[in-house]
Amino acid sequence: NGTGHLNGSDPFARNEEVAQIEIMVLSITFVVAVIGNVSVLLAMYNTKKKMSRMHLFIKHLSLADLVVAFFQVLPQLCWEITFRFYGPDFLCRIVKHLQVMGMFASTYMMVMMTLDRYIAICHPLKTLQQSTQRSYIMIISTWICSLVLSCPQYFIFSLSEIQNGSGVYDCWAHFIQPWGARAYITWITVGIFLVPVVILMMCYGFICHSIWKNIKYKKRKTMAGAASRNGLIGKNSVSSVTTISRAKLRTVKMTFVIVLAYIVCWAPFFTVQMWSVWDENFQWDDSENTAVSLSALLASLNSCCNPWIYMIF
User: Which family does it belong to (predicted)?
Assistant: First the structure.
């Protein structure tokens, strides 16, 4: 809601048809996200097997998605129903902090999961060295960094009169003109979307290269027959190419689909947000407002996608 009125649109009006669509989609998203992620957590809680590193990351990604559901999707749903924020100033700031914290946590938990798959595929020997401890460090650092990186929300958003003398208040962002809004949106876009996507692309580039070497190695091994058993392939030649199991490949495929869903859901949102602050000709009329609303709805769907991806794989 804060980004929807940054550039001086009419504060007393909204497109009610779009608002009804938003309420419906956000309601469905919230219910599906809660049911899906709680089901994943319950399934892990009831399992008798020792939790693997992958399951540990899935657990915390589900927790991060629940943070998004309860502290981003649900407040936004209530906000769409009431149109204005009805609450004290401190609650306005806390809600905005938790909304962005959930985005950071969900995004970087996915990044850490991908980094773990990169280590497992490209550096398999490292997975034998305090792998569980390293996983916990990655997870705890993600939660702490998400909490810290979202703290600027306390200074940017406040309960404010939407127009001097109107007597109507809302939870709005306040920026230093003329560059404040651009700096804020660019920071959020870079921090939550561009940097993670670059890291993810690099990881999957290395992973694909290792898998390609694995396939090439297996073909060569088949043609060579029993060369490895006869000692022609020495100990020093053994690498990650020989250790990629079907289970690892399955987790790589699952993580890739999670990443793909993230990019599909969030790319339109950040594109529209950057367009709104960097295009001087951007006007907050019905068409642009609809584009902003629809891109935000698509982004919210990401919190309910992941559990169903887990179930497929």
Answer: Belongs to the G-protein coupled receptor 1 family. Vasopressin/oxytocin receptor subfamily.
pTM here is: 0.82
Residue environment code for 187-214, b if the CB has 16+ CB neighbours within 10 A, otherwise e? ebbebbbeebbebbeebbeebeebbebb
pLDDT band for position 153 (cuts 50, 70, 90) = very high
The structural domain count of the chain equals 1
Measure the N-to-C terminal CA separation of the chain; round to a whole number of Å. Answer: 36
Least Cα distance to 114 among 240, 253, 241 occurs for 253
**DSSP of 50-117:** PPPHHHHHHHHHHHHHHHHIIIIIHHHHHHHHHSS--S-HHHHHHHHHHHHHHHHHHHHHHHHHHHHH
Distance CA 175, CA 156 (A): 7
Question: Over the stretch 56-98, which tens digit does the pLDDT of each residue have?
Answer: 999 999 999 999 999 999 998 998 898 888 889 999 999 999 9
Q: Which amino acid is at 73?
A: V
Computed on alpha carbons and rounded to an integer, the radius of gyration of the chain in Å comes to 23
**18-67 residue pLDDT tens:** 788 889 999 999 999 999 999 999 988 888 777 788 889 999 999 999 99
Q: Which residues contact 87 (CB under 8 A, 6 or more apart)?
A: 95, 159, 171
Rounded CA gap, 106 and 104, in Å? 6
Residue of 218, 221, 199 whose CA lies nearest to 210: 218
Task: Select from 38, 56, 151, 149 the least CA-distant residue to 109.
Answer: 56
Range of the domain at 265: 3-312
**Cα(133)–Cα(303) distance, rounded to whole angstroms?**
27
Q: Which amino acid is at 244?
A: I
